[in-house]
């Protein structure tokens, strides 16, 4: 019973904290063909989960590593910009194999850098039990895959959602950068500074995406 309750706790944690990851996956694979989208979403999610299982055992040290979240935040910003660039270009500009492996790379690296909170929560709930960690993360794969596929279809129907998604990634990137121990020790930002930076990044990305789409004639 204890194992079952702990497993259910891990599933709940994954479901609550997996929204940002599903959004990154959806944006990363949006430029792929429908069949390759499913492969990219499933393959990227599984690869990211495997790496997270290994990293969960080092969770106590992750938050103290300087520059980790800052670098991850800038990487998320880069992904958002790349997605906006791809969204404003014709589908045949980049070869499909290149798009596919780029999408897998984006998914794995972004998932790991954005999942420090997930990893810490899972490590605490599982008390270091390997099979509980594996169970909780594995059960979350169908949810992330389903959510990512749904988001992809919604973005196809309503392209403006790509701009909103990039704005959300801008906010997430701002949170990650400001949570880095190095940035926090030097700047010590208050709530106003945090909200201002997150809003500036979100607005900047959305404006950049709108400008590119307008210039390309797709907005």
Structural class, from helix and strand content? Answer: mainly alpha
**Strand fraction:** under 5%
| Poorly predicted residue ranges | none
Number of helices: 11
* Whole-number mean pLDDT: 75
N-to-C order of helices and strands? HHHHHHHHHHH
What's the Cα radius of gyration? Answer: 18 Å
Largest sheet: none
Q: How many strands appear in the DSSP assignment? A: 0
Shape: globular
Helix content: over 70%
Q: How far apart are the first and last residues' alpha carbons, in Å?
A: 55 Å
Looking at the chains present, what oligomeric state does this protein adopt? single chain
The tally of structural domains comes to 1
Give keywords.
mainly alpha, globular, 219 residues
Question: Helices, strands, pairings?
Answer:
Layout: H1 2-17, H2 19-29, H3 34-56, H4 59-62, H5 68-87, H6 96-114, H7 116-126, H8 130-157, H9 160-179, H10 181-187, H11 191-216
Explain this structure.
The chain is an all-alpha fold. It has one domain. The radius of gyration is 18 Å and the shape is globular.
Offer a concise description of the structure:
It is built from 11 helices and no strands. The protein is mainly α.
